[in-house]
Each structure stands twice: as structure tokens, then as C-alpha cells.
Design brief:
binds guanosine-5'-diphosphate; binds 6-O-phosphoryl inosine monophosphate; binds magnesium ion; alpha/beta; ten-stranded mixed beta sheet
């Protein structure tokens, strides 16, 4: 056993939470390594239905330690609410830890996320307004407040004082917003610190003890490869790396420890927020997918934009993550579709592109080149074995494998834990 990363292969919301909940029964440790509460991971299992924003989806197994890693930005209020909700459903959270190196989302981050989106006007990115981008900005600018700072009131006060002084200049002089009050924020974060102190610790030793014992460690990705700060549709991206490489830095694991990197993909594409989506279906079919799959944001409730599967974007995702396997979700949504399209290339003027352009200006001019495959009539949501899937569904999967040069090792046919079919062994 070793490290298995579970990564969003598209624009997020592929079903990572469900896959982690399924695989975590065998894991000693699950680590969230990037993003913040912009993520919304749905888990439907015998305990109920949960929308997790920060707590790793391994929390339902008492023997699995769940770490919110150093690469995550944590809003303490959101985390405490999530802990309370889990506990109210009888879930034991004593196996949850927060890395003392994880940065905190502060009230000025949330405020500035909104003020910046308002300033961008028509060019707004469509962020989740959770303060995630501004918190990562401060981390890189070396003026962030970390979870470990909550353990000492003196350290917290000193850090907050220095940063808030500067933030208030920006708030008042740039945005014309009233300043925030140091004492109020300090008081509130001291209270968070009191409640969160049992969870905040140095998590490196827990993780590396599991690795030294050859236990299974799962890395739970957030967002998706096309929202990556470097390789995504910049600037319509998130502010951390959702890639497998982000798992190394966001959890503190060397690349040689990885034995599998699983990319989670939907059978179609969705995107929430602004930015290009070459295969977007603005009419009937897009609407049909949205309603059938209830494609509304887990975090913000916004309708997700829907489109056919984009193999050009998918190939980039396989490359930049070094994917070994694909977990393909939402196969059941295509039940009853007479035919299904896959985008195999982009047309740009009279040129045909088969690799994903790095520029949004170019992407906006691209037209999809489609291949059409026959659909299937039968319902797949009760199917438990690969051989029992309709031939057309198996052919569709085989074509995706071919186009992405990566095997589909798991396919899911419904939202709950048991609605999954292992095509080949997915864990080492
Ligand atoms: P995540 O952010 O990648 O964890 O995904 P989300 O939870 O935001 O969105 C995925 C949605 O699809 C959730 O509502 C899941 O319950 C649902 N889901 C996951 N897998 C399947 C599947 O195979 N079929 C169907 N119909 N729904 C699924
Ligand atoms: P999970 O983990 C889908 C999108 C936002 C916006 C862009 C930047 O559930 O797959 P941000 O708030 O991060 O600054 O917003 O990124 N976004 C997501 N879209 N799923 C997510 O997470 C997302 N996290 C951020 O909608 O377009
Ligand atoms: Mg989500």
C-alpha cells in the first residue's frame, strides 16, 4: 500500500467526494491538500447525505485519520459548522486533524473576494466568494495567519495587528470601505481557537508514520485540473494547485510515494463560474443534463454549465497529473440518450487543434469537433458488474480510454456509495 491521489480531472464537481468515501474504507489516512471551502464534496452513504467543504470524505470510517493539510486554507467558522453537523448525525470526529501550517481565511479575505469581483464587473471570475483567492494571496505574500497561530493568543494578536493595519489601508483607500476592527476579529478568532485547538497539530508525523508502515494514504483533491492556477483557463481558475503535484506540496509527500493517481471525470463536462467551456450546450441537451443530474453548485447553488465530454481538455489533465487511472462518474445520466457526442479536437479557423490552448482568448475562438457514438436505452443504475453494462456504454468507455490514453478503472452509476463498478483493481 502507498499513496493514491484522487484528483478532479475537469472543472471540479466530478464526484471526488463519492470516490473518496468509497475508497477510504481501506485507507489509514485521508488528506485534503488544496483549496478551501470553495470545494463542496457530496457523500451519500448509510449515515446520510453530506456536503463536505473542508473535512475529508474519509471521516465516516472511525479507523481512518482525516487530515486537513497544510495546502488548504481554512475558514474556522465553516469548519466548526461542519464538525457540528457531522456530530449531530452521530459521526465521530475525533479522527480529524488540521495541520498547524494550514492558513486561515480571515474576514478581510471574504470581504476582498467580493470587492474584487465587484471591481472586475463584467470580467468577474465567478468565484465562490469564500475568500479563498485572497487567503492564498496572503500566504504567498507571507502575511498570512496560520492555524497554529490560534494556539497562542500573543502570536495571533501580533500577526493580526500587523496584517490588519495594512489591510485597512487597502480597504479604506482603494475600495472606500470602512476599516475592520482588530479587537472584534481577535476576539472571534480566540473563540475559534479554543474550540479548534484539539484538532490543530503537527500532522507530518501522523502521515509519515502511516507511510513508513506501508498503510494506504489517500489524497483528496479539490477543484479540477482545468481550474489549476498554471494549466487551467487562466485567469478563470482557482488560486491553488488541484493537480497531483499539488498533493505533494499540500500534504508533504514526495512524488516517489505515489502508486496511483486517479483522475475523476464525469461522462460529460460541467463548469460553475465564468471562463471558456468549448463544449457548452446552451440549449436543450445541456438543460436535460442539468435537470437530470441536478447540476447545481454544492457550495453556491449556482446552476452548472453543462456540455459534452471534452477529450482535448481531458488529455491535458491526464498529462499534467500523470494519471494512472480514470474513475468515470455519472454514466447513468446518459441512460436513454439516443446518441452521445465526444469532443475529439478543436477547430480554430481552418486549423484543427488536438492539444488544449493555454490562452483564454484562443479558447474562446475554438469550436468543438465532435464524434458521435450510439447511446443506450437501458437503465444502468442497478448494474453491479461491468459485463452487465449495455454494450454501447462499454464502447463509450473504451473510446474515452483510447482518446485519453488512460484506463477507466472505476465507473459509477448513481450518487450513493454502492453505485460503483470496479472495472479493474483501482487500489494497489
Ligand atoms: P465533487 O466536488 O467532485 O466531490 O463533486 P460534487 O459533490 O460537487 O458533485 C457531484 C454530484 O454528483 C453530487 O451531487 C453527487 O452526489 C453526484 N454523483 C456522484 N457520482 C454520481 C453518479 O455516478 N451518478 C449520479 N447520478 N450522480 C453522481
Ligand atoms: P470541488 O472541490 C467547481 C471555481 C469557482 C470559480 C473559480 C474560482 O467541489 O470540485 P474560487 O472561489 O476558487 O476563487 O473560484 O473556481 N471553483 C469550483 N468549481 N468545483 C469546485 O470545487 C470549485 N472550487 C472553485 O466556481 O469559477
Ligand atoms: Mg463539488
Amino acid at each position: 500500500m502507498a499513496v493514491v491521489a484522487v484528483i478532479g480531472g475537469q472543472w471540479g464537481d466530478e464526484g471526488k467526494g463519492k470516490i473518496i468515501d468509497l475508497l477510504a474504507s481501506r485507507a489509514k489516512v485521508v488528506v485534503r491538500f488544496s483549496g478551501g471551502d470553495n470545494a463542496g464534496h457530496t457523500v451519500i452513504n448509510p449515515h446520510g447525505e453530506f456536503k463536505l467543504h473542508l473535512v475529508p470524505a474519509g471521516i465516516f470510517y472511525p479507523g481512518t485519520t482525516c487530515i486537513i493539510g497544510n495546502g488548504v486554507v481554512v475558514n474556522p467558522a465553516v469548519l466548526l459548522k461542519e464538525i457540528d453537523e457531522l456530530q449531530s448525525h452521530g459521526i465521530n470526529v475525533s479522527n480529524l486533524c488540521v495541520s498547524d501550517c494550514a492558513h486561515l481565511i480571515m474576514p478581510y479575505h471574504i470581504l476582498m473576494d467580493r470587492l474584487e469581483e465587484e471591481r472586475r464587473g463584467k470580467g468577474a471570475l465567478g468565484t465562490t466568494l469564500r475568500g479563498v483567492g485572497p487567503a492564498f494571496t496572503d500566504k504567498v505574500a507571507r502575511i498570512g495567519i496560520r492555524a497554529g497561530d490560534l494556539l497562542s493568543k500573543d502570536v495571533l494578536l501580533a500577526g493580526l495587528k500587523a496584517t490588519l493595519e495594512f489591510k485597512n489601508v487597502i480597504l479604506t483607500k482603494v475600495y472606500g470601505h470602512p476599516p475592520l476592527v482588530l479587537e472584534e476579529i481577535f476576539e472571534q478568532y480566540c473563540q475559534y481557537g479554543e474550540r479548534l485547538s484539539p484538532f490543530i497539530k503537527e500532522t507530518n508525523s501522523i502521515l509519515h508514520e502511516a507511510l513508513s508502515k506501508k498503510e494506504l494514504v489517500l489524497l483528496e483533491g479539490a477543484q479540477g485540473a482545468l481550474l489549476d492556477l498554471d494549466f487551467g483557463t487562466y485567469p478563470y481558475v482557482t488560486s491553488s494547485s488541484p493537480l497531483a503535484g499539488g498533493g505533494c506540496t499540500g500534504a508533504g509527500i514526495g512524488p516517489m510515494e505515489f502508486s496511483r493517481t486517479i483522475g475523476v471525470f464525469k461522462v460529460y463536462s460541467t463548469r460553475v463560474g465564468a471562463g471558456p467551456l468549448v463544449t457548452e450546450l446552451k440549449e436543450e441537451v445541456g438543460e436535460l443534463i442539468r435537470e437530470k443530474a441536478h447540476e447545481y453548485g454544492t457550495t453556491t447553488g449556482r446552476p452548472r454549465r453543462c456540455g459534452w465530454f471534452d477529450a482535448v481538455a481531458g488529455r491535458l489533465s491526464v498529462q499534467v497529473n500523470g494519471l494512472s487511472d480514470i474513475a468515470l462518474t455519472h454514466l447513468d445520466i446518459y441512460d436513454g440518450f439516443p446518441s452521445i457526442k465526444i469532443c475529439i479536437a478543436y477547430k480554430l479557423g481552418d486549423k484543427v487543434l488536438d492539444s488544449f490552448p493555454s490562452s483564454v482568448a484562443t479558447l474562446e475562438k475554438c469550436q468543438p469537433v465532435y464524434e458521435e457514438l450510439p447511446g443506450w436505452e437501458e437503465s444502468t443504475d442497478q448494474v453491479l458488474k461491468y459485463d452487465q453494462l449495455p454494450l454501447e456504454a462499454r464502447n463509450y468507455m473504451a473510446r474515452l480510454e483510447e482518446l485519453l490514453s488512460c484506463p477507466v478503472s472505476l465507473v459509477t452509476v448513481g450518487p450513493s456509495r454502492e453505485e460503483a463498478i470496479e472495472v479493474r483493481p483501482i487500489l494497489p
